[in-house]
Amino acid sequence: MSSESTDGPGPAALAARREELASNLGEVRARIDAACDAEGRARDAVDLIVVTKTYPASDVRLLAGLGVRDVGENRDQEAAPKAEACKDLDLTWHYIGQLQTNKARSVAAYADVVHSVDRTRLVAALAVGAARRERELTCLIQVSLDGDAGRGGALAADVPALADAIAEAPRLRLGGLMAVAPLGAEPARAFEALAEMSTRLREAHPAATMVSAGMSNDLEQAVGAGATHVRVGTAVLGVRRLLR
User: Fold this and answer.
1) Span 25-29, mean pLDDT?
2) Closest listed residue to residue 206, CA positions, set 175, 171, 161, 178
């Protein structure tokens, strides 16, 4: 077993990795800047969430040193120990993956924002977890843009009731909406549909202004449709490692 697997990467490896991350991060930030300029949006209207799934806590630390403050994860068994290892850093942790109800209490212990709320049972479980830890938790409703709830996300017709449930739950805050562009769909049109849903949601819940959309391949289209948060992993960290 290598020293990297037991003690983490050495100084030379860390320096090389920092240089790689800095270069990639600069390119992604430039893309967001250009997309904002093209739409006449202020650059600070869009927050970058760097998705670090399958990558070690050492990368999170390097990213924090490069100015990243929003970190995304999608598997509780990986995210929980990583958040614990980085608890001394000033970070906002975003849970973006599909979430089983029995994992909700664990996620509520470290996540600041949960992007994948798609059913009322999950709302109740997150509220219990947040109360036990005496924490406030921002929740986004994940919306299915192709009507296939089996792939994750609430149907559009279910969003109003789900929004009310979050808004009424103790220690939960309704942040807004999240979606992933459906496979084979034109991202711009999909994100425009999400923006329309966000407008309707804000009629009943004016503070629910967050729109989480766009990843490495379609962040420009998401910014063009009004996304406030883009979730980028591969373009910053590189091709994903295989999950064990």
Assistant:
1) 98
2) 175
